[in-house]
## 1
Amino acid sequence: MPAAPAISLQEKIRRLRTERNATIVAHNYQDGEVQDIADFVGDSLGMAKFAGKTGADVIVICGVHFMAESAAILNPAKTVLIPDLEAGCSLAECATAGQIRAWKKDHPGAAVVAYVNTTADVKAESDVCCTSTNALQIVRSLPPDREILFIPDMYLGQWVRLQEPGRRIHLWNGSCHTHVRIRPEPIFELKKKHPRSELLMHPECGCLTACMNLADHILSTDGIIRHARESDKSEFIIATETGILHRLHKENPGKTFYPAAEEATCEFMKKITLEKLLWSLEDLRHRVTVPEPAASRARLALERMMTIPP
Ligand code: 13P
């Protein structure tokens, strides 16, 4: 008798997803094969919104740890899993709750605006969260004379400060180790070589200020994907983590994308593989929970962000 055909990894994942009533949520920086099996692929804001309204019992976050924490904070009754606990975020590691408490003491009355790339304990010390999609709108939603402590990404903070010159915005000295690998010189070269291309940059880029005059748009990962789809241009220089190229190529077969830095790959994002996703669904690991009272305080900051229209 011929042997039964082997079941693919993807098929095993699909079957277990149904059995567990699970949903798979992936970030735009994940490997292509992980994105392709996910129920939702998007930016940090999209992932949090999707996780906040899913009917599934189990939410598997294919992204980095703070993204799983956000899903757990918004869904305390659900099982939130991350396939590899080592999928951390260098930016989230840049600020601790103790440091933020001390900084607040130096600026009494200031509002703390926390980029979502922070730990739950840091969100718990914050007034409102933001993502790269809505950072400007969140800052503009605060009274114009209120001092702002913007944490932890100094490049995103600098960009917000440039848009809002009259405000007192203090920046934390944090950055993403992947986005600082994107240097201005190769971007200048690419722009010279492809003069008709549009330069799309993520605001976490370390070279944002140096390239500001050259950038056509400064956007979140979903913003970059949306713009590339809608633009009538056919060539783009993409200044962010290279995982985004999978969706850009898949959704725009007739367009050309030049990565600003081939080496801008986040090794933490890439910790998530199909095998680990399967094991995660098999053994319901690794469960991410956020203890009280931090969870409730962090939820307030996340929910405040969600009420501000994009
Ligand atoms: P986006 O919200 O734009 O996807 O960015 C998230 C992130 O972690 C970038 O490093």
## 2
Amino acid sequence: MQRFPVIGVLALQGDYESHARALEQVNAQPKMVRTAKDLEQVEGLIIPGGESTTFLKLLEREELFLPLQQFVRTRPTFGTCAGCILLAKRVTRPNQQSLGVLDATVERNAYGRQIDSEILTGPTSLPGGPLEMVFIRAPRIVELGNSVEVLAQREGSPVLVRQMNILAATFHPELSHAYGMSKNGDEHISDNEDEHPDRRVHRYFAQMVEEYSRQARSGASEAHKHPAQTTAADRE
Ligand code: GLN
């Protein structure tokens, strides 16, 4: 019988509703996460886009920073845009605090003020050909550790990466349309996300969560944790 993994969406700010819809479309059960107790009830978590500085303030206010840091060190977590910034070990422009699990340096607002939002199509190793990617005041991954796999690129730089149980995108995959299905211009960013959505990235993450939970059930998950995600130094 098919399982429907329960995947949390951090619902403090940002476009968490769109991620919840995207998860339903790939047969996962979304659950909004606002408290540490909510975190205990999910198998994986999406940290949506938004404003990373605001996230940090809200995480502090809700006393969620430390529980979230514990969660992302072992459990499948997908950070998109501001979520990617929060997961990175190093954040620049300016330097700022983060959850510190993804072995990467991420530069905030890296594409300048003129190009606030952009829709591009780039190569991906996910099955199904090129991927439409919506960038909104996007960060840029300027440095990546050797253990991080690149799953999609924008003009040669990584925009979708995986480090064992961590997935991170500098774009908004909840807004991707199937290749050739998007209109030009900004209007479809907000209006038409449910028309011909491309759910490959959410499906990929849901599979990561299922795989993790399957291994956890069989007691094998310890052996599969990534050293960079779980070293003793990281826990200090
Ligand atoms: N510019 C935002 C930040 O620095 C991220 C933008 C986004 O998530 N769309 O946090």
